[in-house]
């Protein structure tokens, strides 16, 4: 039985990915700093095939402790896939001249530093896999295109893109490393109970996507599954955005 570790597993893309792979017969490890969200998942998943740990993946001590627990739980088995999904969901930070260094650092730590810390901790366990170990970093289309006042978020995701190809050339061939750049993904139905909301998209929201709709977390989970199985794909950054970044959109 293969094992996947997903950071930011409590909600959104992380939650959908955890449930998708568990449904496909994998053992799953979920890390998140939201204990309430993890408790919901813990009640829904059997303990022999799911390990859910409260962890702030931007903090070295938390990551070290969590991966020690993961290694014990694996009991000699390998970790097959790490998904570095954690990050600050809201990309908007306000005017550049008002952006505090501490706030900037929070965005960087949540995505980029967290991916470094978790990848560093996971590599020895990934190298135990007989074949096909991989890391998938969840970047963003904002790594390559911007909206106003997203400086820290865009920088964190751009750094994650660079970390992806740097790790790919250094960790291969034992471990392949790729990134997914989600576009507009509707995560409302994949929140914990108190924050769950149904999608309500306007026709023009769907029309700006050549695929004809806004994305879902399941779209990203399926892309992760593809990248894990694609043995000749590494160091790549794949847009999963319904074609939105290929369509010129003019203001009305």
- State Rg: 18 Å
Q: Residue ranges: pLDDT <50 for 5 or more in a row? A: none
- Report the mean per-residue pLDDT as an integer: 93
CATH architecture: 3-Layer(aba) Sandwich
Q: Give the oligomer, counting copies of the same chain as homo and different chains as hetero.
A: single chain
Count of all domains: 1
Largest sheet: 7 strands, parallel
Secondary-structure-based class equals alpha/beta
CATH top-level class: Alpha Beta
Structure notes:
This protein is an alpha/beta fold. The protein has one domain: NAD(P)-binding Rossmann-like Domain (Rossmann fold, 3-Layer(aba) Sandwich). It is 40% helix and 15% strand. The protein contains seven helices and seven strands, in the order βαβαβαβαβαβααβ. It has a seven-stranded parallel β-sheet with strand order 3-2-1-4-5-6-7, sandwiched between helices. Helix 1 crosses helix 7 and helix 4 packs parallel to helix 5. The protein starts with a strand and ends in a 12-residue tail after the last strand. The model has no long low-confidence stretch (mean pLDDT 93). Keywords: Oxidoreductase. This is SDR family oxidoreductase. Belongs to the short-chain dehydrogenases/reductases (SDR) family.
């Amino acid at each position: 039985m293969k094992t996947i570790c997903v950071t930011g597993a409590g909600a959104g893309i992380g939650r959908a990915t955890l449930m998708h792979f568990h449904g496909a017969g994998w053992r799953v490890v979920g890390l998140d700093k939201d204990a309430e969200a993890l408790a919901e998942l813990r009640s829904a998943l059997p303990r022999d095939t799911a390990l859910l740990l409260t962890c702030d993946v931007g903090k070295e001590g938390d990551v070290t402790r969590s991966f020690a627990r993961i290694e014990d739980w694996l009991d000699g088995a390998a970790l097959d896939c790490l998904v570095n999904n954690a990050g600050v969901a809201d990309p908007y930070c306000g005017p550049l001249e008002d952006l505090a260094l501490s706030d900037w650092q929070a965005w960087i730590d949540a995505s980029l530093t967290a991916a470094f810390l978790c990848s560093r901790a996971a590599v020895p366990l990934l190298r135990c896999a007989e074949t096909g170990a991989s890391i998938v970093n969840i970047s963003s289309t904002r790594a390559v295109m911007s909206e106003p006042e997203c400086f820290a978020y865009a920088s964190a995701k751009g750094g994650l893109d660079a970390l992806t190809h740097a790790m790919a050339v250094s960790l291969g061939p034992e471990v392949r490393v790729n990134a997914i750049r989600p576009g507009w993904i509707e995560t409302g139905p994949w929140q914990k109970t108190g924050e769950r909301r149904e999608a309500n998209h306007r026709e023009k929201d769907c029309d700006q996507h050549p695929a004809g709709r806004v994305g879902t977390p399941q779209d990203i989970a399926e892309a992760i599954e593809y990248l894990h199985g694609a043995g000749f794909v590494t160091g790549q950054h794949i847009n999963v955005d319904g074609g939105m970044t290929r369509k010129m959109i003019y203001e009305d």
